[in-house]
Amino acid sequence: MTNQEHVELGRQYVMNTYGRLPIAFVRGQGARLWDSDGKEYLDFLSGLAVNSLGHCHPKVVQAIQKQAEELLHVSNLYWIEGQNKLAQAIVNNSFADKVFFCNSGAEANEGAIKLARKYAKKTWGEEKYEIITMEHSFHGRTLAALTATGQRKYQEGFAPLPTGFRYVPFGDLKALAEAINSHTCAIMIEPIQGEGGVNIADKTYWEGLAQIVAEHNLLLIVDEVQSGMGRTGKLFAYDHYGLQPNIMTLAKALGGGVPIGAMAATDEVASAFSPGDHASTFGGNPLVTSAGLAVMEVMLEEGFLSRVQEMGSYLQEQLNKMAQKHSSIVEVRGLGLMVACQLDREGTAIVSSCLEKGLIINCTAGKVLRFLPPLTINRHDIDQAITILDTAFMAQGNG
Ligand code: PMP
């Protein structure tokens, strides 16, 4: 089938919830994708941080193939080998002691919100339920997750929304301190805001936040759905800031391309859940957790994460050089391979121009070009991406 035929079939039968581009990808390998017409693309978005090991990483494919021949799923009424071992790997490499598995980032955040409330009510009383989240944050599209999300556009048309959320500007300690009241039980925050525009707060903010959390005896929930699993050059981004969260959510890169979510917590907090309090039929099934284990194994190999930092610095250096040539680039920022160019204008024209030339990037928060290449990217691929981007800026006449 051609791209056009895929587009027509999709338009007829698939519910219209995405502003899709007229491309159907049919094959991927490493940082490369091919569409249905055979055109090759360099992927600097990784399915929005999903394909962090590149497309069809051999170890992930092998793990899935092997598991598919043995057992797909029975149910969470029984113990699951891959789930146990993936939970162990997450615990051994984070603050957490216990892990709950689900199928997406939104679902992981739903679990985190439920656990925080349950813990707070049990420990501090019925009146403790309010969760402070950040303006421009993104936590998913299910009802509680979109209510936690600090962007009105995701909430419009879906009222009545769950109550008990309060929003403050990201990076503003004074506003955070002022928002706390007798109902507050938790702060929920992305270590780096992804959909909000790759927004980074400085170390002093995080030190202040940790102080506020301690002073007011609050829970700290970090949403690592986009920033986690090696993306920033550490396995989890909260580690850059010396934070001690109580709850963390994961998804996207955790499965290397298959749908998996996880919500991890300290023993103290996790013990607020009793059997029956929360569940997911497919959560942590053998197939996806075998993929997750393969991802974890690769990311924990010696030198993997330091290479992410090295490639991230190289990408930022090259973008900074480009910024000197194109005045429409106001700022280059990022951590590891979560990188952005702040423009002085809308970025969609640049994204389209890159796509035409075979480079996949994305534009978020209107004027922010976002780069989330596979963590396995090399200098050669970065150079190629920069050349295409440079041409796109010149073609647009952007300075
Ligand atoms: N949290 C963050 C930080 C995200 O970036 C996203 C997805 N972009 C989500 C949650 C929601 O994840 P999912 O689409 O898997 O529900």
Query: Which molecules are bound in this entry?
Result: 4'-deoxy-4'-aminopyridoxal-5'-phosphate
Order of helices and strands: HEEEHHHEHEHEHEEEHEEEHHHEEHEEEH
CATH topology descriptor of the largest domain: Aspartate Aminotransferase, domain 2
Name of the CATH superfamily of the largest domain:
Type I PLP-dependent aspartate aminotransferase-like (Major domain)
Proportion of helical residues: 25-40%
For the termini, the CA-CA separation is: 40 Å
Low-confidence stretches: none
CATH class bucket of the largest domain: Alpha Beta
Beta-strand percentage range: 15-25%
**Count of DSSP E strands?**
17
Counted up, domains total 2
Structural class: alpha/beta
Commentary on this structure:
It is a single chain. The protein has helices spanning 3-13, 46-49, 58-70, 81-92, 105-124, 143-148, 173-179, 203-215, 267-270, 286-299, 304-325, 348-356, 379-396; strands spanning 25-29, 32-35, 40-43, 98-102, 130-134, 165-168, 184-189, 192-193, 199-200, 219-223, 247-250, 261-265, 329-335, 338-343, 359-360, 362-364, 368-371. With 399 residues, the chain is of the alpha/beta class. It folds into two domains: 3-56 and 302-395, Aspartate Aminotransferase, domain 1; 60-299, Aspartate Aminotransferase, domain 2. Strands 4-12-11-10-7-5-6 form a seven-stranded mixed beta sheet, sandwiched between helices. Strand 1 and strand 2 form a beta hairpin. Helix 12 (348-356) crosses helix 13. The longest helix has 22 residues, at 304-325. The radius of gyration is 21 Å and the shape is globular. The model has no long low-confidence stretch (mean pLDDT 97). The structure holds 4'-deoxy-4'-aminopyridoxal-5'-phosphate. Pathway: Amino-acid biosynthesis; L-arginine biosynthesis; N(2)-acetyl-L-ornithine from L-glutamate: step 4/4. Keywords: Amino-acid biosynthesis, Aminotransferase, Arginine biosynthesis, Cytoplasm, Pyridoxal phosphate, Transferase. Pyridoxal 5'-phosphate binds at residues 105-106, 138, 223-226, 281. The modification N6-(pyridoxal phosphate)lysine is found at residue 252.
